[in-house]
Amino acid sequence: MISSLFHRLCFFVAFAWGAVSWSLGMAHAEVKLPAIFGDHMVLQRDMKLPVWGWAEAGEKVSVQLGDGKVVDAVTDAKGEWRVELHPVAAGGPFEMTVKGANVVKVSDILVGEVWVCSGQSNMEWAVQSSLDPQKEIAAANFPAIRHIKVPLIAASTPQTDFKGTWQVCNPHTVGGFTAAGYFMARELHKELGVAIGLINASWGGTRIEPWVPATGFEGIERLKDIQQLIQIKQPTHPQYQQLMEKHLADLEVWSKSAREALGSGKAVLPSPAFPTALLPFTTHGEPTTLYNAMVHPFVGFAMRGAIWYQGESNHGEGSLYTEKMKALVGGWRKVWNQGEFPFYYVQIAPFLYGQEDPLVLPTFWEAQYAALEIPNTGIVSTMDIADLNDIHPKNKQDVGKRLALLALKGTYGREEVVASGPVFKALKEEPGKLRVTFDQVAGGLKSRNGQPLDWFEIVGEDTGYVKADAVIEGSDVVLSAAGVKQPTAVRFGFNKAAQPNLVNSVGLPAYPFKAGEIRIKDMLKEKVAEAAEYEVLYDMDLSKLSGAPIYDVDNSDKIKGTVERVAWFVDLRDSSGALKYCYVSADALTNELKKLGIPTAASGASFQQVIKNARVLSNVPGLPNGEVGDLLNVEFWPGNYGPANGVGVPNASDALYDSGDLIAGAEAGYGSMQIHHHGSNTTLFAINNWNAAQSADIGIGNSTGQSRDWTFTQNAGTYQHKRLRVLVKMKK
């Protein structure tokens, strides 16, 4: 019985493999085209037209578009063929005939303009979910607009095809079209009078990195970590081979011990895990996977350019996004081999993003705008069409129109078209005022709602940012504010909730910006007279925080003698522009100068003690000022810590991180540099987790969160200015 089953199984396997082998052979025995070449497609006018597919190796294939010239190719050993048709003027419908062992006909082909539409949900957002959907769908009788949607798939390696079909625009089909792409296409079709084809490769919630081909990350210094992750997964890479050799050796050792254990009736331990670094990228959140599955299958298809609407999933990373845009645009242009084709993209709209700092989104807008340094790119402003409570603004009509304006002017040579709202050009200081000059004003500047201009803020040496009175003078806006004697810097629309009313004469909105110099007064010299008696031991721009902090001034090897008193001075300018400072001086707690700065493991510092004869000066409400005696304690150490009041600091909590935390170890870890007024359980200043650089914790006064001492706030990056100085007074 067992023998019979075995022979049946062998026959079944042999039959199944034969069937699979036959089907695989047949897959290339007949001429086949990828999905991008299908009925109702649009081909790019006035450009050489690559056409490719599969057939039997060595098979001759001929391709003809309409009554044009027949172009031949011979299928290579992999079963792939490719031809290049001569440029064709706009028109159609045409039929394309592909002949080999069989004949494939593609019908109802139009020749016009082809645009790739990509990004996340705001590009994927469909006409049926946009503003006035019923009206828009009913009016969508544009048979010369065609659309193909690429399925949502991720892949670890570049794919050659996808499942999809071209659709002709009509009220029955348009509801599923990309809205931003469709409304752009509608404008272009009306203006150019030619067919428009849209290739929609978009997926909601995705980051930019999965859309970038591997080659796009090459040569970009700030993205070399991603490039290394990609390279190590290549079997030819030395590190891949090294890790795999070790893994195979570990498996051999395990296999031997496993057999011995099994033979002696003992439990077999789990086998060594496959090296994580060598596992392929497979999910739609990992680098290259969406390019591989959703873009690579049609790379080489002749097209005019690309539009991009993405960023919500990357909006917290600031200037790094500019580098990723360079990777995306540069990577696509490299693999398409079609030169610097136009690449137009959309500013993500104002949105509240919960409790997020109001400056995170504007900082991302700066990064989006900075990507304009990439040649042949353009950006659409959405400052006036947002819904602050909906990350998907329904008004995709204006998005599409503005993308079309960029294309008409930048790609199709319509010089008379105004394609941009006002953009910052220059800033000039005048007595008590700032004069901002704008470019792209068309016939002039105006308020879109007739109200005074809003969302202009200015800052002076003695103030934070305050709302400015803004007056239009030609192409300029003149700014002033009561209480700001001489403004030195301006920011416009620099808030996640900003929806400014400044537009140009054709109603296009101004793009947010900041400009000028925020001049920082030296509050140590101005407010702390006794500092003149001290020497500077350390001076550090805290934007340089790291596991091994680099001081701008380090006199620890130069100052000699015995320390009489030590002082720390921290000054911060936060997102409002307000300057805060705190000065603490006390009797020396050590004569080892290297232990008085950032308490890294290398410094050897570890203090949790009272400091004596202390003095505090600060402009932060709630902090003591003047002589405070022995009511201060320091918490300086390089390692981790917990909230328990293990050393019995008066008024400290056992549940909250505050003035009485418990050191958890001497080795390098989270790290604390804090001074507290334990009499009132108030944090004077804190610098924690310096290893995290711009995600470190920094603050003066108590944090408003659950941790009074700023632990876990990760807020260092929100300060425009942050500086630490350590001073010593030596005994004479």
Automatic annotation (TrEMBL):
It holds the Pfam family SASA. One of its GO terms (molecular function) is sialate O-acetylesterase activity. Coiled coil: none annotated. SUPFAM superfamilies: SGNH hydrolase. Keywords: Hydrolase. The keyword Hydrolase applies. The keyword Coiled coil does not apply. Residues 288-405 form the Sialate O-acetylesterase domain. InterPro entries: Ig-like_fold, SASA, SGNH_hydro_sf, SIAE. GO terms for biological process: carbohydrate metabolic process. It comes from the Bacteria. This is Sialate O-acetylesterase.
